[in-house]
Specification:
This protein is mainly α. The chain has two domains: 62 residues, Helicase, Ruva Protein, domain 3 (Orthogonal Bundle), CATH 1.10.8; 33 residues, no CATH class. Helix content is 46%, strand content 3%. The protein contains six helices and two strands; from the N terminus they run E-E-H-H-H-H-H-H. A two-stranded antiparallel sheet has the order 1-2. A hairpin with a 2-residue loop joins strand 1 and strand 2. It is elongated and about 75 Å long.
Length: 129
C-alpha cells in the first residue's frame, strides 16, 4: 500500500479517490493536487510510479495542512474560542449546537442522542402475581 502523509491509501481504488482517505483532502482538492502533479486521476493507486508518488507526497507536504497538523489547528481554534468566552466557545463547552441551529428539537446528535420525553406520564398498574 502506498503511504502518503502517514496514511496507507488503498491500492485498488483510483488515485483521486484514494487521496480522499487522507484527513483534510476531499474530492476537489484531490483533483487539484493530481493536476498540479501531472498524474492521471484514473490510475489505480498500485499502478503509480515511484516518481509520481514522490511528487504527490512533496506537493501535499509543502502546500497543504493534512492529518495531525490540521486536527491540531482545529483543536487550537476551538480552545481559543473557549478561553475568550465568546458565544461559540460557550456552546462548545456546553456541548450544544454552535452554528445557530434550533435546540428544541433536532439537536440529538450533538447532545449525544438524549431522549428526555416520557410516554403518557403514568406507569401501568402492577400485574397481579
Amino acid at each position: 500500500m502506498p503511504r502518503i502523509a502517514g496514511v496507507e491509501i488503498p491500492e485498488n481504488k483510483k488515485i483521486w479517490v484514494a487521496l480522499t482517505y487522507i484527513y483534510g483532502i476531499g474530492r476537489t482538492l484531490s483533483w487539484k493536487i493530481l493536476r498540479e502533479a501531472k498524474v492521471n486521476p484514473e490510475l489505480k493507486a498500485k499502478d503509480l510510479k515511484p516518481e509520481e508518488l514522490n511528487r504527490l507526497k512533496e506537493i501535499i507536504e509543502k502546500n497543504y495542512k493534512v492529518e495531525g497538523e490540521l486536527k491540531r489547528e482545529k483543536l487550537m481554534n476551538i480552545k481559543k474560542l473557549k478561553d475568550i468566552g465568546c458565544w461559540r466557545g460557550l456552546r462548545h463547552i456546553k456541548g450544544l449546537p454552535v452554528r445557530g441551529q434550533r435546540t428544541r428539537t433536532n439537536s440529538r446528535t450533538v447532545r449525544g442522542n438524549v431522549r428526555k420525553t416520557v410516554g403518557s406520564g403514568r406507569r401501568p398498574p402492577p400485574q397481579p402475581k
